[in-house]
Amino acid sequence: MSLDPRTPVLAGAGTVTVPRSDNALEPIDLMAEALEQAALDAGTTELLKRLNVVMVPRGMWRYPDPARMLSDRFGATARTVMAEVGVLQQTLITKACDLVARGDADVVAVVGGEARAQPRRDRSPAEGEGEPADEVLAPHGEILSRAEIDAGLVMPVNQYAVMENALRDAEGMSADEHAREVAELCAAFSRVAADNPAAWNRAGATADEIRTPSPSNRPLSFPYNKLHVSQWNVNQAAALLITSAAAAEGLDIDRDRFVFPRAAAESNVMVPLSQRPELHRSPAVAFVGSTLSAIAGVPLGDVEHLDLYSCFPIAVRIQQRQFGIDRTRQQTVTGGMTFGGGPLNNYVLQSTAKMAEVLRADPDALGLVTCVSGMLTKFAGALWSATPPAGAFAWADVSGQVEDAMPPRPVADPREEDSTELGFTITYHPDGTPDRRIGIVEYADGARAIVTAGA
């Protein structure tokens, strides 16, 4: 089958995982190694010299323009893009595919990484002051409300735990039934990580080990222990090389390496958790899912390979329910962000790279990779296949639909009157003893409040 020359192709994907180290690792070096691995995966390092655009999602490092550093390192003269925290990682991948499809670039790299699993290191000179990237993408809107900040409902683990308990109550599950279901989900992810050479933690964990607090699995925010949540103190990087079909064929890249973006969708609406109409559902997930399904002509529950964004179990569980996915099937290709590894603002590059490997081995199948930013605030997804698409790459921003479906609820000071609790959590001290109970309540007139008390 002949391809339109402007068809975007994921020609190469590379990941790097370096075990815990006593050496001072530079995140930029991990990113460079991931780019080299992506070029080798494509079968030619010539791609790195031909980079037109390099895009990097910001991590916990402080390089002003890491994309420029990478472009210079490989002898390219690329335009550089930095995405600040709060911009969906999928946005960069979609933007890369769209640039290629429109003829504005032939070779685009999306790359990121972290080096957090090591002794605290001094900032390198490269992390000093310097010129910003040619283009800086920044989020608009607030992830946290003033009421949430004042009440101390700030940490992601606390907010996601509130969502988790809201879903438990909505489904009428007992505490024990709920704890077992969540732990079994995480244990299934750990089994995938055990078979993934690029995973951060391949030791595996049983459902009982995950649900039971211990010195190595301390409680963080009820019902979550450490083994329930994303682990970001890792040394990991990933890179994707997205090219036009014409550029890939011009470099004699084997067709068997091609993985095609079929469709992408995203929502960038930012409504803080306490203001959302429902705490256990997401209009963003619903509209992204229905849009992807319509573009691809297939229910997401029928997609053969999945990597559902897994910062916390509730993120996976909301997607399961709203996408109509069988809860007993495999839902990650990496092992997820607890066991596969969750480098800040970079995981979707890891999961997309692994999905490319999976789809090359199953070329007739579809793969779904999803993405979250904030407290399940923004959401995105992409469908991929190693089979050439029948039509052009398509993507959609469904923010308008999500905004219409999620009018913010007012949040004010607590009142001395009857209310309904919508969700809660219990926070813990570092020694594992309970600290505070935090709940989001709603009054008869629809107003909300955040209520805190000693645990």
Proportion of helical residues: 25-40%
H/E topology pattern: EHHEHEHEEHHHHEEEHEHEHHHEEEHEEE
Rounded to the nearest angstrom, the distance between the terminal CA atoms is: 64 Å
Radius of gyration, rounded? Answer: 22 Å
Strand order of the largest sheet: 1-8-4-2-3-5
Structural class: alpha/beta
**Shape category:** globular
What labels describe this entry?
single chain; 455 residues; alpha/beta; six-stranded mixed β-sheet; 16 strands; globular
Task: Describe what this molecule looks like in 3D.
- By secondary structure, this protein is α/β, with parallel strands linked by helices.
- The chain is built from 14 helices and 16 strands.
- The protein has a six-stranded mixed beta sheet with strand order 1-8-4-2-3-5, with helices on both faces. Strands 10-11-12-9-13 form a five-stranded mixed beta sheet, with helices on both faces. It has a three-stranded antiparallel beta sheet with strand order 14-15-16.
- A hairpin with a 4-residue loop joins strand 11 (366-373) and strand 12 (378-385).
- Helix 6 crosses helix 11.
- The longest helix has 20 residues, at 175-194.
- It starts with 7 loop residues before the first strand and ends with a strand.
- The relative contact order is 0.18.
Please outline what is shown here.
The chain has 455 residues and is an alpha/beta fold. It is 32% helix and 23% strand. The termini are far apart.
